[in-house]
Amino acid sequence: MRNKIVIVLCSLIALLILGSFFQLTPREFQVNNSKSPASTILVPSLRILLVGDIMMARGVAALTDQFGLAYPFTKIESLFSHSAWDFIYGNLEGPVRAEALPVAFHAMSFEYSPQISHFLAQLGFNILNLANNHVADQGKEAVLQTRDYLQKDGIIPLGDPNDCSLKYGFQKEPLVFLGANLVYQNKTCVLELIESITKLKKQNPSLFVIVTPHWGPEYQKEPDNFQKQTAHQLIEAGADLIVGHHPHVVQGIEEYQGKLIFYSLGNFVFDQYFSKETQEELALSLDYQPQQQIFTLIPLESQKSQLNFLEGTERQIFFDKLAQISSLSLRDEIQKGVIIRHN
User: Fold this and answer.
1) Residue 37 — φ and ψ, nearest 5°?
2) Residue 41 clears pLDDT 90, i.e. is over it
3) For 137, what's the count of Cα atoms within 13 Å in the CB-facing half-sphere?
4) Which residues contact 186 (CB under 8 A, 6 or more apart)?
């Protein structure tokens, strides 16, 4: 009798262990199969982290030369847990090339040595936007070198400073990333984006298209008319999410036709110490599922280019200010730091 009890207990323990082993991971979810209601299909979910402008030269370089390349990120190291993200995106402000020289403190042309690309890859970045007004600072050859170094380090070089065609996009179903340098309000570029998005959606309506424009007036908390008009046109063409950068400050979030527009995430790493606004940053976490997207707002602050999480009262003040310059339909969610949208 005692032996039977032991056998039963062992069997139950084994079932529990197997059950826990075969549970869905957080990166999977179940979709009902209409043909067979009792069955389920496992569809992978995706987690994406998006941040704004990354500028590792000038004043930032002076600090990293003294304290190491990890200096800007030491206090937010937990954000870059490699197991947490499928993609980490940022906007790279300047080219990577072998001949890179130190950048003077007041210079407006940037460049980085290949060790910067290597370090950002180690940190977890695997998509860096090149569709901006600084990647071509050192000429066309430097742009080519940048692509080469990033690819060698396992980073996708997204977009081009002068070309908005689909060939510089990145697609890994169900996601599509399209970068665009719209600093100079290039209307031809906008038309190319509209054409690309329309084509993609016609071929596969289930794609989730993310456009990351570099645009807008610097240091302005409100998007200008060009940003608003362009964002609306891109969503009307089929874009599912717009995440911008370039103004160096965080701009508001708009909801348009059920889609979200993050007009500017602000800086991520920069040396603009002259205002509080240029040292407040917004990182964006996207938990993507075909029927639901969860956007988690991660407010940050920096002092002397070293990032830290905003917490407590300061965190809530950040959310309250952001809510005031965003769509009324989003205000309650922004104040809580999480926006959920269902398809």
Assistant:
1) -55, -25
2) no
3) 23
4) 164
So what's the pLDDT on residue 290? Answer: 95
In a domain? residue 245: yes
Look up residue 5 and give its amino acid.
I
Span 275-318, pLDDT tens digits: 999 999 999 999 999 999 999 999 999 999 999 999 999 999 99
Is residue 59 included in any domain, yes or no?
A: yes
Residue 155 has what pLDDT?
A: 98
**Mind giving me the DSSP string for 56-87?**
-SHHHHHHHHHH-TTGGGGGGGGGG-TTT-SE
Per the domain annotation, does 1 fall within a domain?
A: no
Strands (E), the chain: 28-32, 40-44, 46-54, 87-92, 127-129, 156-158, 170-172, 175-181, 208-214, 241-243, 253-256, 259-262, 267-269, 280-289, 292-303, 306-309, 338-342
State the Cα angle at 185 between 184 and 191, rounded to 5°. Answer: 135
pLDDT at 143 over 60: yes
50: its two tokens: 């998006």
| Radius of gyration of the chain from its Cα atoms, rounded to whole angstroms | 22
Domain presence at residue 48: yes
Residues 6+ apart with CB under 8 A from 270: 53, 55, 60, 93, 248, 278, 302, 305
The type of residue at 291 is Q
Helix (H, G, I), strand (E, B) or coil at 103: coil
The model carries a pTM of 0.88
The total number of structural domains that make up the chain: 1
* Whether residue 22 has pLDDT greater than 70: no
pLDDT at 44: 62
CATH number at residue 261: 3.60.21
- 201, with CB counted inside 10 A (0-12, 13-18, 19+), is middle
Domain that holds residue 117: 41-342
